[in-house]
Write a structure and sequence with these properties.
The structure holds two protein chains of two kinds. By secondary structure, chain A is α/β, with parallel strands linked by helices. In chain A, 34% of the residues lie in helices and 25% in strands. By secondary structure, chain B is of the alpha+beta class. Classes of the chains: A alpha/beta, B alpha+beta.
Chain lengths: 216, 310
C-alpha cells in the first residue's frame, strides 16, 4: 500500500530529514513510526499525501508512483488518505458536525448521505451528542476524536496520524489508540507516528524505528 | 457516477459555496455594507452621468439636428407673392417641407409666446415680415444646405435667409465631449470596483488561511477552494449593483421634478426618464460581472500561494 524506495529529503539549507529510507507497509497493516525528534517521522508521513516531495527515490501509494502524479490529481490522492494531526486542525468557527462533514462536502456527496455518514462517524468516536458544539468548547481528547471522525468519515483506505496522543494523558491516549485499532480491524492501513513507547509496546503492532532518516 | 448525480453534485457544490459566502458576508455586516456602498457609489456615479446625457439627447431630439432654414420675405410682400415663393421653395432640391408663416400668424405666435400682447397692441402696423420655415430632407450635408441657402436668397422677394444649425452643432460637440468624459470616468470607476472587490477578497483569503489549508489538506481541489471567494465577489458586485440602481432611482426622483419644470418653461414637452427596467438590469449585471472579475484576479494572485503545512 505504501512503499518508499531509497527516499531522501534534503531541505534548502542542507538539513537532511530522510536518507535513503526504504519502507513497505502492506494493505491493512498497522504500523507505528518511532524515533527521536528530527529522525524524519513527520517528513515520512508528509510525503504520503504529497505535502512534500522527495529529493530522491520514489514513493508509491496503492500502486501509484507519486512522482508521476499530476498536481491536479493530488486532491484525489488526499481524499483517499485520512490524516490526523497533533493539533487537531479543526475549524473553530464551525460546529463539530460541519468539521466532520467537510471531507464529504469536498467530495460532493449528497446532503442526506452527508447527514448519515457524519452521524455514523461521530457515533463511532462517541461524540454524537456534541455535534452542535463548537470545537473550542471541547476537551483535548474530544477535539482529537473530532479530528479522527473527520479523517475516517469518507472511509479512506489509508489513515495517517502524526503524534495523535501528544497532548493527552495515558488513559485518553490508550483510548485513542484503541480507536485506531478498530479502524485497522476493518481493513484500513494505519500508520501512526508516536514517541509513546510504553503504549506502543503494549499494543504490539509493527514498529518502524527511524534514526537519522533511515529505518533502523 | 452517473451523469445526473454529477450534475446534482455540481449544483449542490455551487449552491453551498453561494450560500456559504453569503453567510460569511453576513457575519461581518458593517464591513460588507461598507464594501457594497463603495461599489454602489462607484457604479451609480457614471450611471447618473450617462442618464443625464441620454436625457439631454432626448430633450434635444425635437431639434433633431436636421437644419432648418428661415427665409424672411421682403416687408409688405403681398399674399400672392408669399404663396408663389412658398411654391418655388418647395420645388427646390433637398427641401422636405415648407411652411409659410404670414405676418399675421407670426404676430399671433409672437404674442402668445412673448407675453407682450399689450405692447404689441400699441403698434400701428405689423412689423413682422412673412417668413418661410423650410425643413430639409434627411441626410442633407452642410454643403448642400449652404447651396440651398444661396439659391433661396437669389429668389425675388426674399430679404434674408438664415441657416439654423451652428448652435446645434455646438451642442452636439459638447455632448460628444461629455460622453467621452463620462466613458473615461466610468472606466476609472469600474477599475475602482475591481480593485475594491479584489482587495476585500484578498483580506478575506488572508483571514481564512487556516480553512484554506485544511481544505487543501483533506483533498479540496483548487476549484473547490476558489469557489466561495468567487461567489463572495459576485455577491458584492450584485449588491453594489442593486445599491447603485437604488441611488439612481432616488436621484431621478429628486432631480426629475425640477428638470421637468425647467423643460416646461422652455416650452418643451420633454419629460425626464429614469434608467428603466433594462437600464437597471444592465447596471446590476455590470456590477456583478465587475465583482466577479475582481474576485477572480485576487483569487488568482493569492490563493495559489497557500499550500498546506502538515
Amino acid at each position: 500500500m505504501i512503499r518508499f524506495d531509497a527516499v531522501s529529503k534534503r531541505y534548502p539549507g542542507g538539513n537532511e530529514a530522510l536518507r535513503g529510507l526504504a519502507v513497505h507497509i502492506g494493505q491493512g497493516e498497522m504500523a507505528f513510526i518511532t524515533g527521536a525528534s528530527g529522525a524524519g517521522k513527520s517528513t515520512f508521513l508528509r510525503m504520503i499525501p504529497l505535502l512534500e516531495r522527495p529529493s530522491q527515490g520514489s514513493v508509491v501509494i496503492d500502486g501509484v508512483n507519486l512522482a508521476r502524479l499530476p498536481s491536479r490529481r493530488v486532491p484525489y490522492l488526499r481524499r483517499r488518505i485520512g490524516m490526523i494531526f497533533q493539533d487537531h486542525r479543526l475549524l473553530n468557527d464551525r460546529s463539530v458536525f460541519d468539521n466532520v462533514a467537510l471531507p464529504l462536502v469536498i467530495a460532493g456527496r449528497a446532503h442526506h448521505d452527508i447527514q448519515r455518514r457524519v452521524r455514523a462517524a461521530l457515533d463511532k468516536v462517541g461524540l454524537l451528542h456534541k455535534e452542535r458544539a463548537e470545537p473550542v468548547t471541547l476537551s483535548g481528547g474530544e477535539q482529537q476524536r473530532v479530528g479522527i471522525a473527520r479523517a475516517v468519515v469518507t472511509r479512506p483506505p489509508v489513515l495517517l496520524a502524526d503524534e495523535p496522543t501528544g497532548n493527552l494523558d495515558p488513559t485518553l491516549s490508550e483510548e485513542i489508540m484503541r480507536l485506531f485499532e478498530q479502524f485497522n480491524q476493518v481493513g484500513v492501513t494505519t500508520v501512526i507516528a508516536s514517541h509513546d513507547l510504553p503504549l506502543i509496546e503494549r499494543l504490539g503492532h509493527r514498529r518502524i524505528h527511524l534514526v537519522d532518516g533511515r529505518a533502523a | 457516477m452517473k451523469l445526473p448525480s454529477i450534475l446534482r453534485s455540481w449544483a449542490e457544490q455551487h449552491a453551498r459555496a453561494a450560500i456559504g459566502s453569503l453567510g460569511q458576508m453576513r457575519r461581518r455586516p458593517s464591513g460588507s455594507l461598507m464594501t457594497t456602498a463603495v461599489i454602489g457609489v462607484s457604479l451609480a456615479l457614471p450611471a447618473v452621468f450617462l442618464l443625464a446625457i441620454n436625457n439631454l439627447q432626448s430633450a434635444t431630439a425635437g431639434w433633431d439636428g436636421t437644419p432648418r432654414i428661415s427665409v424672411f420675405l421682403e416687408q409688405g410682400a403681398p399674399a400672392d407673392i408669399q404663396t408663389r415663393l412658398r411654391d418655388q421653395a418647395a420645388e427646390l432640391d433637398d427641401v422636405a417641407a415648407v411652411e409659410l408663416i404670414t405676418p399675421e400668424a407670426g404676430l399671433r405666435s409672437f404674442e402668445q409666446h412673448s407675453g407682450m400682447e399689450e405692447t404689441l397692441a400699441l403698434l400701428d402696423e405689423n412689423p413682422l415680415p412673412a417668413a418661410l420655415e423650410i425643413r430639409l430632407a434627411e441626410g442633407v450635408g452642410s454643403r448642400d444646405a449652404e447651396q440651398l441657402v444661396e439659391s433661396l436668397s437669389r429668389l425675388d422677394g426674399v430679404a434674408e435667409t438664415r441657416l439654423d444649425r451652428a448652435w446645434l452643432q455646438r451642442l452636439e460637440a459638447i455632448m460628444a465631449l461629455a460622453g467621452r468624459g463620462v466613458a473615461l470616468i466610468a472606466l476609472l470607476l469600474a477599475l475602482t470596483v475591481i480593485l475594491v472587490v479584489g482587495n476585500t477578497i484578498r483580506l478575506d483569503i488572508g483571514n481564512r488561511r487556516p480553512e484554506i489549508e485544511i481544505t487543501k489538506l483533506i483533498g479540496g481541489t483548487d476549484a473547490f477552494v476558489r469557489r466561495p471567494f468567487l461567489y463572495t465577489g459576485l455577491w458584492y458586485g450584485f449588491a453594489g449593483g442593486l445599491m447603485a440602481a437604488l441611488l439612481l432611482i432616488i436621484t431621478v426622483q429628486v432631480i426629475g421634478g425640477p428638470a421637468g419644470r425647467l423643460a416646461e418653461l422652455y416650452g418643451s414637452g420633454f419629460q425626464p426618464t429614469g434608467p428603466g427596467l433594462l437600464g437597471t438590469l444592465r447596471l446590476i449585471v455590470i456590477g456583478t460581472a465587475l465583482g466577479l472579475l475582481g474576485a477572480w484576479i485576487a483569487v488568482g494572485q493569492h490563493l495559489s500561494q497557500i499550500e498546506p503545512e502538515g
